[in-house]
Amino acid sequence: MHAWHVPRNGEPGEVMRLAEADIPVPGDGQVLLKVRAANVNFPDALLCRGQYQITPQLPFTPGVEICGETPDGRRVIANPALPHGGFAEYALADAAALLPAPDALDDAEAAALHIGYQTGWFGLHRRARLQAGETLLVHAAAGGVGSAAVQLGKAAGARVIGVVGGPDKARTARELGCDLVVDRRADDVVEAVKDATGGRGADVVYDPVGGAAYAQSAKCVAFEGRILVVGFASGTVPTPALNHALVKNYAILGLHWGLYAAKDPRAILDCHRHLTDLAAKGAVKPLVSERVPLAGAAAAVQRVADGLTTGRVVVLPPRTEGAAA
């Protein structure tokens, strides 16, 4: 089979190599999946750089989120078991953690429904307790993680303000359903949010960016608001001023979705049922902006790492007849 390998750490476009490889052999509790579509995530870039929470032994195949096909022909969503990731024709996954791919979504959309949407669901509903009628501020609203939060916020009945960088991403955010779009390159984010909320600020802030975005969040979060710390795509981890949280009465909430697999796996299944229902109703639909062949995976991961994409970029390996054997 063909698979992308990372033999050393560095920028994805420099270290990822497409090579011939043996089809991996499942270990105990694992299943071999034929990859139908592999979604590109920012963690794929961090894995290449050696900066992710886990550091697989070199060489490894990145690709942490796929829609795959089981040996008996079922279409499933899975997080591949590294080092045998999803940017390949076949991948390995934990058999007990497979989720049925929603019938309402094609392979590329199904591959993109998992990590970003589960993160959004747990963040908005379980951690921040977002209520209908509240104002939700989403940073990087046109990106893969942000676009999921926008759709989930609208589905929950919130008023959604999206922060983006540039007119193209602003257009995408409006198409996603944002009630107000703020271009951080042209507008004062804090002033725009306060103007739009009558000075109150945002009840919930969804921040996958960190850095300057977090500083803006602290300035425009409402009384008893909640700031969700989801990631640090900017590359800068903020250091919150806890005295500011105290005098303004807001909460800073962390969200590491991967912990739920170990701490509360049933919650992941429940979340997937909610997401499947929303997809069936058309309330959520992953924004797949690019579908690239397997040969384009390294360039795609680099574009995501550089913040040059909107929505999701999905890698589509060549299709062959039959399921994984």
TrEMBL record:
- Any one GO MF annotation of this record: zinc ion binding
Gene3D superfamilies tied to this protein = Medium-chain alcohol dehydrogenases, catalytic domain, NAD(P)-binding Rossmann-like Domain
Tell me which residues make up the Enoyl reductase (ER) domain.
13-315
Record InterPro entries: ADH-like_C, ADH-like_N, ER, GroES-like_sf, NAD(P)-bd_dom_sf, Quin_OxRdtase/zeta-crystal_CS, Zn-ADH-like_protein
N-terminal signal peptide = none
Pfam families in alphabetical order: ADH_N, ADH_zinc_N
* Stored SUPFAM superfamilies: GroES-like, NAD(P)-binding Rossmann-fold domains
UniProt protein name? Oxidoreductase
Q: Which organism is it from?
A: Streptomyces longispororuber
